[in-house]
Amino acid sequence: LILNTFEEIEANMPHILIFPFPAQGHIKPMLCLAELLCQAGLQVTFLNTRHNHRRLNKLQDFSTRFPTLHFESISDGLPEDHPRNLLHFMDLVNSIKTVTKSLFRDLLISLSHKSDVPPVSCIIADGIMSFAIDVAEKMQIKVIIFRTISACCLWSYLCVPKFIDQHDRPYSFGSKQLEDPNFQFFVKETQVVTRASAVILNTFDTLESPVLSQMSPFLPKIYTIGPLHALWKTRIGNSSQLSSSDSNLREANSACMTWLDLQPLKSVIYVSFGSYLVLKGEELLEFWHGLKSSDKPFLWVLRQDNNNTISKELGFTLGTMGNGFIIDWAPQEEVLAHKSVGGFLTHCGWNSSLESMVAGVPMICWPKLPDQLVNSKWMSEVWKIGIDMKDICDRTTVEKMVRALMEDGDQRQEIMRSVDRNSKLASESVSHGGSSFINLDMLIEEIKT
Ligand code: UDX
Predict the structure, then answer these.
(1) Does the interface ipTM go beyond 0.90?
(2) Which residues of the chain have pLDDT under 70?
(3) Which residues form the Glycosyltransferase N-terminal domain (predicted)?
(4) DSSP state, 99?
């Protein structure tokens, strides 16, 4: 009888399908949201590409903790051994537009014929997969867009066509950027946001209120529910051995935590350029020499898919090297929260930026992708929680920046004041009664109705 009742309840719950772009920085916040929606009693199908689905290793823990969370996977259309980093970004984009789009439609149809789940009533689609909106509109399913970038970046992308019409360019982007097919893709995809019923942003009001109020008249209802990894901690916590990082597609090296335990308080600079940037050999060398000459202990994530051959030829090995410790993949949230970590040399990916803000760690920003360029500018000029290295990459600059951030001078003290204030605001936004906490409840209400 109890089983029947549970099945009946499940059959009447709203059914949401969440579909992230197949990359680490997109899967992580969207899976955090999926868990939060299940926690609130909704039924969620989380759709991954097959390539990424195979790399999630906590599936059993997810289903134990969240019985209404289901996973589905479809092909991204690329051969299994095809690289899926930044150098091959457009291959992935073109392939999912052609192959994955029709598989997505087929999946929605098959879900609508299942007897044990209600048909999908709402799709939360990644904002750089406009084909999901096309499919949903044809099938008359409500769509909410999730953008994994900052509000300031979303606003910049939205403004680009206007700037181009006026023969001008937004100040964060160089003219080289405007010709880049990756950049054009991001800008074009962004324009579809107005077709959604609502927009979810992984940010918090007190961080980006001026830009949020500027763009809200042009967009559907915006739900700011970030930093999602921190909201996840408030509302779900460390239950059933799950953590907000369980969407990681790579296995983290936990030996670095023991190494960190041995370092003095706030002495370590953590270095990571995210999940899919690929550095050139000469860039690796400049960072290496700069870090070495800074004389500060450093923990460096050198992904093995990052020019593996070049990094081996240059003599990089995993483990201790000079004053540093090199690893393939870090338990980043734990690293940033460690008492020995005093700074973060980052590419300014939005997840990394939020994780650093929450942990109260100041940043040196070395941005590459368009969204990172905007974040980096805001970090240094608006929020004043980091130093912008722009695209400069030479050993002298690296050494100078690391010293400026890590040594206890005027610059560090000033940055730390903003960092501490910002970290407090981030925590408040995800606490009971905070803006992101409340906005999540409002989003759940909108989905339910
Ligand atoms: C890119 C974009 O730059 C980003 O702004 C966009 O929103 C998503 O795509 P990515 O290179 O993946 O992102 O960086 P980031 O957004 O910072 O996400 C990386 C994630 O991987 C973070 O959540 C970080 O904690 C995690 N990570 C990274 C690890 O867990 N271990 C590592 O060693 C490195």
Answers:
(1) yes
(2) 1-11, 170-172, 239-240, 306-308
(3) 16-229
(4) I
For 78, residues 6+ apart whose C-beta sits below 8 A from its C-beta are 51, 84, 91, 92, 95
Catalytic residue among 15, 26, 51, 338: 26
Structure-block tokens of residue 425: 């605001």
Mutate to test the pocket of ligand 1, among 92, 352, 356, 365 (most ligand atoms within 8 A of CB): 352
Q: Is the peptide bond before 217 cis (omega within 30 degrees of 0)?
A: no
Tens-digit pLDDT profile for residues 252-285: 999 999 999 999 999 999 999 999 898 999 999 9
CB-based pocket (< 6 A), ligand 1: 23-26, 28, 148-149, 245, 248, 272, 274-277, 301, 329-330, 332-333, 349-352, 355, 369, 371-372
Q: Give the type of residue at 12.
A: N
Q: How far is the CA of 350 from the centre of ligand 1 (A)?
A: 7
Contact 212, 147 (CB under 8 A): no
Of the candidates 227, 168, 448, the residue with the CA atom closest to the CA atom of residue 353? 227
Quote helix, strand, coil % in the chain, to nearest 5.
50, 15, 35
